[in-house]
Amino acid sequence: MSDPVTAELSAAAEPSVPPTPPQRVVPAAAIALAVSGLCGLVALSALWSLHSMLGSPASGVTVLLGAFGVAALLPLVPALRAFNTARVRGRFLADGDLAAARAAAARGRDQSHTALGYALAVLICAALVWFATANDGAISRTFLRWEFIETAWRSVADAFWVNVKVAVGAEVLVLVFGLLIAIMRLLPGQAGRPLRWIAIGYVDTFRAIPSIIVLYLVGFGLSLAEVPVVKDLPPIWLAIVALTLTYSGYVAEVYRAGIESIHPGQWAAARSLGLSYGMTLRTVIVPQGVRRIVPPLLNDFIGLQKDTALIGVMGVTDAFTQARLTASNVFNLSPVIVVAVLFVVITIPQARFVDRLLAREQRRAGRPS
User: Fold this and answer.
1) For the CA atoms of the chain, what is the radius of gyration?
2) What pLDDT, on a 0 to 100 scale, did the predictor assign at position 1?
3) Is-contact 76 33, C-beta < 8 A?
4) Which residue in 154, 179, 321 sits closest to 236, CA to CA?
5) Going by fewer Cβ within 10 Å, which terminus of the chain is more open, N or C?
6) Is the torsion defined by CA of 307, 310, 312, 318 positive or negative?
7) What's the CATH number for 148-364?
8) What secondary structure letter does DSSP report for 332?
């Protein structure tokens, strides 16, 4: 064994590796300052173009545009702070305080990245303003004429209730019919093989056919064929039937994914307790599977709501049909923007609800949201 004193002396004699200095902040801060300034100038130019297009706007509008101009220059603030943080980093480094210098360098880089992120957001907004004011405001005159929007608002909103009724009716039927198709596809053994083939054929067929074709065939074909019961249904119910046929194929696959995600041990435990296949599905498997598929299920329903804008092909006077009629009368597409706004208003809350459900599921599973 070597002498401890000798080992300590030999270790002290070995050259020590110098600590790694903290990263520099000035290059990132300079890039952030340049990008922020450039994006701010582009935004100010876009706002000036909007002001010129408006002619002589009211003083309130001018003040609002000025506030937007000041907001467009706000990314310069974190970029300038990054330069100040770079000086703080140099001071700590000169004093030999590497830990404080590294913390200052990290803070400076974060400030630079913040400035870049907000500057790019300003650039995107400026591009939208340029697009709206392009060709001497032709885009705004075509899509955003307030007098036409105000005229069409009431009639389009009244017709929009038809879209809401069709969406709600189809969603209720899809929940039931889609689950039946999924269970048919999961039937075990040779006895369930014919039903599995039928379920697979149904899902593959209706996921492949565009919704507008199904609406057209159901809306006109069933009436021409004089199918009993169906031929006497009003157009709204025919639209509900068509969307149910289409979206049951999508929802059936969502159900199947949720059911198959349940561990096989759940099946084995339930069957060992004497539960039949149907009771196992109804009391053990399906409740757990449905809880897992709520977010993708709501996403499919958002798509279904948007497809209700296609029911005009069946002769139903929905919001889009009413907007097209109004637009053809005024030779302007501003009434169609009303339809778009209405769909956005009912879709965004559902999208945020889906995000909350996903975040809750991730917290339950122990994953960071």
Assistant:
1) 32
2) 46
3) yes
4) 321
5) N
6) positive
7) 1.10.3720.10
8) -
Domain borders along the chain are 21-135, 148-364
- Position of tokens 């545009």? 65
Look at the block and give the residue holding tokens 């173009």.
49
DSSP 56: S
DSSP code of residue 55:
S
pTM of the model: 0.74
Nearest residue to 258 via CA among 175, 167, 191, 335: 175
- DSSP H stretches of helix in the chain: 4-13, 26-53, 59-72, 76-94, 98-143, 146-185, 193-208, 211-216, 222-224, 235-260, 264-272, 277-280, 286-307, 319-330, 334-364
Q: CA–CA separation, 240 vs 299, rounded Å?
A: 18
Distance of CA 146 to the CA centre of its chain: 28
Q: What is the mean pLDDT of each run of 10 residues along the chain (369 residues)?
A: 52 56 84 92 88 77 88 92 88 83 89 93 91 77 81 89 93 93 88 90 93 90 79 87 94 90 84 83 84 84 91 88 88 88 89 80 66
